[in-house]
DNA sequence: TGCCCGTGCTAAGACGATTTAGCAAGCACG
DNA sequence: CGTGCTTGCTAAATCGTCTTAGCACGGGCA
C-alpha cells in the first residue's frame, strides 16, 4: 500500500554505490564506462529486488522528451468507424515503450490548436494529425516544435513540410471497376460520386480518387458509367433512394459501385424491397469494409480501408521524423497503403442476355 | 523555428524579479504572499509577452502528479461500438485541463498489468478501467498507488475498494417489456437470453440484468416469454436464424425483444425475407442504439447505452477519488446511468385478432 | 535606544533522473 | 622517482518548477 516509490537513490544506497553508478548501470552504459562486473551485477540485483522503476517524468525533464506521442483526430476515436486506426497507432507506440495521448477536435480548428499546445506542454515527441475521412486540410500553426504526420489526410499546400499516410484510393477505384468489368458487366451505376470526373462531394479525397480510378479502368474498357449520383453524405437513405430511382428507370444495368458500405446497405434495402436479388440481378462492389459488410446478406464485396495499417505507419513515420532519419525528400512525402479486397458474395457475372 | 522554450527563469529575469516571485505570481499565490500589485502586473505582462507556458513535466515532477488520467480498456477504442465512451471521458478530462492516456488490452490481463504499470510510471493521477461489454471482472493488482474507477464493469468481489459506473440495464429491461405489454402484446419472444432467469450468456451483466427486468414486468402482467434463445455472440446471423425458427414454428407471436441491435438486424432480415412487415406483423424492441438502429427500415426502437454519459461520469468519479472527496461508503459504490429510449418505428399494437 | 512586527521579496533546496568532468589508485615506463 | 595512462568509480551540475525558510527594511512602541 501507499509505500513510497523506489527511486534511483534508494537503489544506489542499497547497493552501496553512487547514484551515478546506478544510473550508468541501469541505462546499459556500464560497459562503456567500465563499471566492474561485480558492481553491475549487484546494482541490477538490488534494482530488481526493490522493484525499481524509473520515474518517466523525471527522465523526460532531463532529456527534454516525454516518451509519448500525441494523436489528434477530428472524430476518429468517437465515430465508430476508424477505431482500428487508433489501435494500430497504439500498438506501434506501445511496442516502442511510448504512450499515446489521444485528443478529439470534432473538426474545430480552435480546439485543435489548444490540443496541440497542451500536447507540446507535455513534451510529446511527435504528433499525429488524423482525419476520419481522407481529406485535404490546412496545417495548424504551432507544429514547428515537434515532428508531425498527417494520417488519412493531405496538406492543402504545394510543398508541405510534413509527411502523409493515406489509403491508396486510386488503385482501389481501379480494382473495383476491374472486378466488375472482368466479370462481364457493361452497365455500371455509381452511387456517391460521378458520372463525370469532377462530380465529387467537396473536400473528400477518397471520393475523387476512387472515382478517378474507376473512370480510368472503365475508359480503358471503352465504357462510361451508366449513371452517377453525387451526394455529400454517404449514408443509407441516399443509397436506398438512389437505387430505387435506378431500378425504376428504364435502364437498370447489372452492377452498382457504391462509394461506401453504408450506401451499399441502402442499395441492398431497395433491391430487396423491389423483389430482386444480389448478385443475381444486380452485383454490388463497395469501399470501406465496415462491420456491416459482413452482416449483409449476401456478404458485401468491398475494398477495405486499411485502418490498422494506416495507424501503424503513422507512428513509424513520426518516429522517423523524430530521429531525423527522414532526410531530404521524405519531408513532405505521401505514403499510400493498399486497400485490400474483401471478396464476399455480392458480385457475379451478369445474367446472360435473354 | 526551433526557438527554445520560454522558461520561468526567462520570465523572471525579463521582469527583473526572482524565479520565486514569478512562480508565486503566476500560480496565483501573489496576493496571499503579498507581492505588490506593480510587480504582479509586470510579471504577468512579461509572461504573456514572451508566451510563457509552464513545463508540465517539471510541475508534475515537483508535485508528484502528471496532470493526466489513464484510460485502459479491453477493446473500447477499437471496437467501433463504444467510441462515445472515450469521447465523454476525453471531454470531461480536457475541461479540467487533464489529458488522457489511452491503452487497449484486448482483454489480456498481462497486457493490462503492463499498461497500468506504464501509466503509473508516468504519474497519472487516476486510472479508468473500461470494458466494452458490461461484465464482472477481477481487479488487477498494482492499483494501490492511484485512484481507479471501473467503467461498464463491476468488480467480482463482495466489497470492492473502487467505484463502478454502469448503464442501468435492469430498468431498461423493465421499460422494454413495459413498452410491449402496454402496446397490447402478449406473445413476446426473447432473442439473446431467456426464457428462464438464468438463461444468460456467461459473464455478461447486461444480459442478466436486462432479462431480469423483462421477466419482472412480464410476470407482473401475468405473462411469460413465448420463447427465449441464449447465445454467447449477439451477432446478426444468430438473430436471423432464430427469427426464422420462430416464424416457422406454429407460434409466431406478435413481438420480439432482441438483446442488442445486431440481433435485431438479423431479425429484420429474416422477417423481410419471410414477406412479413415490421411493425405490422411483428414488433421489435432492442438495446444499444447502435448507428445501425437508425438505418434499418423501419427505424428500430431501442434503449441506448449512454456511452457518452458513462465516459463523463467515470472521469468525474476518478477525480472525486483523487481529491479524496469520496468518503466512506462511496468507496465501492455502483453508479447507474439511465438508458434512454430511442423511439423509432418498430413497435405498434398487435394486429387485432381475426 | 532597543525590540518586535509587518511588508515585500529572494535564496536555496527539493523532485528524480542523466551527464560531464574529474578524482584516486595502480601500474608501466624512462 | 616523476610522469602519464588505465581502471573504476563519484561529485556536482542540470532540466524547470515549487516551496520553505528567511532576509532587509521601515515603523510603532516601551
Note the main sheet of chain A. Answer: 6 strands, parallel
| Whole-number tally of structural domains of chain A | 3
End-to-end Cα distance of chain A, whole Å, is 81 Å
- Number of discrete helical segments of chain A: 12
Query: What multimeric state do the chains show?
Result: homodimer
Enter the CATH topology name of the largest domain in chain A: Rossmann fold
Globular, elongated, flat, extended or rod-shaped: what is the shape of chain A? elongated
Mean pLDDT of chain A: 90
What is the CATH class designation of the largest domain in chain A?
Alpha Beta
Could you describe the 3D structure shown?
- The structure is a homodimer of 354-residue chains.
- Chain A is an alpha/beta fold and 354 residues long.
- Chain A folds into 3 domains: 8-54, 434 Repressor (Amino-terminal Domain) (Orthogonal Bundle), CATH 1.10.260; 65-168 and 307-337, 3-Layer(aba) Sandwich (Rossmann fold); 169-305, Response regulator (Rossmann fold), CATH 3.40.50.
- The first copy, chain A, contains 12 helices and 12 strands.
- In chain A, the strands form 2 sheets. Chain A has a 6-stranded parallel β-sheet, with helices on both faces. The first copy, chain A, has a 6-stranded mixed β-sheet with strand order 7-6-8-9-10-12, sandwiched between helices.
- In chain A, helix 1 crosses helix 2 (19-26), helix 5 crosses helix 12 and helix 7 packs parallel to helix 8 (205-220).
- The termini of chain A are far apart.
- The model of chain A has no long low-confidence stretch (mean pLDDT 90).
- The interface between A and B is large, with 56 and 56 residues.
- Chain A binds a DNA duplex (30 and 30 nucleotides) through helix 2 and helix 4.
Amino acid at each position: 500500500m501507499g509505500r513510497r516509490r523506489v527511486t534511483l537513490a534508494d537503489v544506489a544506497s542499497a547497493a552501496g554505490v553512487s547514484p551515478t553508478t546506478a544510473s550508468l548501470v541501469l541505462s546499459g552504459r556500464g560497459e562503456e564506462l567500465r563499471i566492474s562486473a561485480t558492481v553491475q551485477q549487484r546494482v541490477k540485483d538490488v534494482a530488481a529486488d526493490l522493484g525499481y522503476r524509473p520515474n518517466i517524468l523525471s527522465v523526460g525533464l532531463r532529456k527534454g522528451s516525454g516518451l509519448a506521442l500525441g494523436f489528434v483526430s477530428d472524430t476518429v476515436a468517437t465515430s465508430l468507424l476508424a477505431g482500428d486506426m487508433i489501435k494500430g497507432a497504439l500498438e506501434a507506440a506501445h511496442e516502442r515503450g511510448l504512450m499515446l495521448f489521444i485528443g478529439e477536435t470534432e473538426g474545430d480548428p480552435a480546439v485543435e490548436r489548444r490540443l496541440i499546445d497542451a500536447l507540446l506542454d507535455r513534451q510529446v515527441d511527435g504528433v499525429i494529425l488524423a482525419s476520419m475521412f481522407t481529406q485535404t486540410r490546412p496545417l495548424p500553426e504551432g507544429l514547428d516544435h515537434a515532428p508531425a504526420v498527417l494520417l488519412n489526410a493531405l496538406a492543402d499546400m504545394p510543398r508541405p513540410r510534413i509527411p502523409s499516410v493515406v489509403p491508396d484510393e486510386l488503385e482501389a477505384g481501379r480494382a473495383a471497376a476491374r472486378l466488375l468489368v472482368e466479370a462481364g458487366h457493361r452497365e455500371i451505376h455509381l452511387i456517391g460520386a460521378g458520372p463525370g470526373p469532377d462530380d465529387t462531394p467537396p473536400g473528400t479525397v477518397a471520393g475523387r480518387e476512387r472515382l478517378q480510378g474507376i473512370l480510368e479502368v472503365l475508359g480503358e474498357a471503352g465504357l462510361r458509367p451508366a449513371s452517377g449520383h453525387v451526394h455529400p453524405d454517404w449514408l443509407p437513405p441516399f443509397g436506398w433512394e438512389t437505387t430505387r430511382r435506378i431500378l425504376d428507370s428504364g435502364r437498370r444495368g447489372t452492377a452498382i459501385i457504391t462509394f461506401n458500405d453504408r450506401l451499399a446497405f441502402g442499395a441492398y434495402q431497395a433491391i430487396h424491397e423491389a423483389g430482386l436479388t444480389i448478385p443475381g440481378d444486380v452485383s454490388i462492389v463497395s469501399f470501406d469494409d465496415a462491420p456491416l459488410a459482413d452482416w449483409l446478406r449476401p456478404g458485401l464485396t468491398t475494398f477495405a480501408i486499411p485502418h490498422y495499417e494506416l495507424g501503424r505507419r503513422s507512428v513509424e513515420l513520426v518516429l522517423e521524423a523524430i530521429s531525423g532519419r527522414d532526410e531530404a525528400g521524405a519531408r513532405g512525402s505521401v505514403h499510400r497503403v493498399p486497400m485490400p479486397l474483401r471478396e464476399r458474395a455480392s458480385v457475379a457475372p451478369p445474367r446472360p442476355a435473354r
